[in-house]
Amino acid sequence: MLSLDGKIVAITGASGGIGEATARLLARRGAAVVLAARRSERIDAIARNIREEGGRAAACVVDVTKAEDLQRLLSIAVDQYGRLDVLVNNAGIAPISPLADLDTEGWSAMIDVNLRGMLNGVAAALPVFREQGSGHLVSIVSVAGLSSVSPSMAVYAATKNAVRTVHEGLRTESTDGVVCTTAISPGYVRTDLADSMADPHIREQTRKNMDAMGIPPAAVARAVAFAIEQPGDVEIGEINVRPTVQA
């Protein structure tokens, strides 16, 4: 039977939503988790709660736009647990708006967090994975832009699809079986992602859509667990996780 027992997993954006749900699920299934986010009080509390329930968990304050923070996160995982099996790149923001609004600060922020943050994770993880002979990179992407780009989501979809492209490139460079990659693309999920949206109309409409059709973060966490519990000769390259009612 497939199992997560003994897996060591670091998760960015773990202070809520998909990241928190993933940490809790993986810990219940036997993995040791290292939670990373900017909100220290929140990840400390989640890690403490996981330990109180019998799991193994640590916390590390991380800003994914800073390469040294990702390197420190992985060092903590290796120092505390002896290795790192999986890095889940989950941190992301969505200050979406029509291009005509010229929100260049929002564009830069999405590039820095959604794309550069993921690349910082790659740069920190690959040397660790190569040295120990195995490792799995998982990134939470999005269904945005898979078939068409919705109004106001051009830059957000661009950053997420860039992550998808990096994943495919890394997969083609890693056919020696040392590094596995999985890109998981959720549709509407009930999280606080809308809080990062500056436009009040878009923010409110997104919240309504999440309330009306959003699936729980645990649904995406199960997809993460499925991908990383596979044996070494199996790679789940991409998973799309949508509400059944989402077009």
Strand content: 15-25%
Poorly predicted sequence stretches spanning 5 or more consecutive residues = none
SSE order, one letter for each helix or strand: EHEHEHEHEHEHHE
Oligomer class:
single chain
Mean pLDDT: 93
Helical segment tally?
Answer: 7
Helicity, in percent? 40-55%
Strand order of the largest sheet: 3-2-1-4-5-6-7
Question: Main β-sheet, in a few words?
Answer: 7 strands, parallel
> Structural class, from secondary structure content?
alpha/beta
Total beta strands: 7
Write down the overall geometry. globular
Distance between the termini: 35 Å
Rounded to an integer, what's the Rg over CA atoms?
17 Å
Question: How is this structure best described in words?
Answer:
With 247 residues, this protein is an alpha/beta fold. The chain is built from seven helices and seven strands; from the N terminus they run E-H-E-H-E-H-E-H-E-H-E-H-H-E. A seven-stranded parallel β-sheet has the order 3-2-1-4-5-6-7, sandwiched between helices. Helix 4 links the parallel strand 4 (86-89) and strand 5 (135-140). The longest helix has 29 residues, at 104-132. The chain is globular, with a radius of gyration of 17 Å.
Architecture blueprint of SSEs:
Blueprint: E1 8-12, H1 17-28, E2 32-37, H2 40-52, E3 56-61, H3 67-81, E4 86-89, H4 104-132, E5 135-140, H5 154-172, E6 179-186, H6 200-213, H7 217-228, E7 238-241
Parallel strand pairs: 1-2, 1-4, 2-3, 4-5, 5-6, 6-7
Helix pairs in contact: 1-7, 3-4, 4-5
